[in-house]
Amino acid sequence: MSGKEAGIMDFDSSTITDNTLTRARGVAHMIEQVCRFAYEDKRPEALHSVQWSALRYFSRANEQVRTVNGLAKFLGVTSAPASRTAASLVKRGLVTMRQSPRDARSNIFTLTEAGLLLLPEDPIGKVAHILAEMNEDDLCRLAAALDNVHSKLIS
Amino acid sequence: MAELLLIEDDPAVAESIIFVLENNNHRVTHAVNLDRMRKILEAGQKFDAAIVDIWLDGEDGLSAFSKEADHAFITHKLPFIVISGGAPGKTLEAATARADAYGAVAMLYKPFSDEELLSAIDKAVSG
Prior knowledge:
The complex is a heterodimer of chains A (155) and B (127).
Chain A: H1 3-6, H2 18-38, H3 49-60, H4 68-75, H5 79-91, E1 95-99, E2 107-111, H6 113-118, H7 123-131, H8 136-154
Helix pairs in contact in A: 3-5, 4-5
Chain B: E1 3-7, H1 11-23, E2 27-31, H2 34-42, E3 49-53, E4 55-56, E5 59-60, H3 72-75, E6 80-84, H4 92-101, E7 106-109, H5 114-126
Parallel strand pairs in B: 1-2, 1-3, 3-6, 6-7
Antiparallel strand pairs in B: 4-5
């Protein structure tokens, strides 16, 4: 099966049969369930998915962009929600905040030791380890198919 | 020294990247878009790694490096670094996921430091 064939949204909608649509709906539910199970930890101290996103961003972004504006661009939100998310990580002791030496109006966020220790527990890591068991061709095809779905959803 | 292919549509960004890389003994060939990149590769020029801006003018830079790309036979084995400063309606989070999923050696968020760029080049070239 080629990557194109794997991308169910490549089909002309007028040719989609009921069987195909049912099958596609099942796959869509599977994607939803994978996402839901990934973030199944409902303890009060558990991070929300957007907080995990912010923690990941602060762990891999360079110092110049580890700011509220950088996080806002990363998440695709305005600076207010990005600021609240960053502040929530500071409050939990997972990141520190200090004034930027380049811009006094901007703060730089850096992971604390607690933040670094938490990273290996990233819920996405569990899913990644399961996916890593697939052979590379299957993984590439899955990536292409999900990329196709994602690009059509946001267009 | 490494032979590097830079795919970047912003002339100012391209100029600063080329300046840093050439000052560190690398050779850089610049393509302003994917069409130019394909012509360079089809001409037979060999590279050790590529640096690609994910959102070129109206083009998806990363698409050239996917296994399903029409020129995958050229680019699939070329280690590549993705750079991005974001784009309207696109999140860097989605760009990062795509870069990781398509096998990028590193994802650099603009503006990045010279050291970060050079470290990513070392990683790409050393395999």
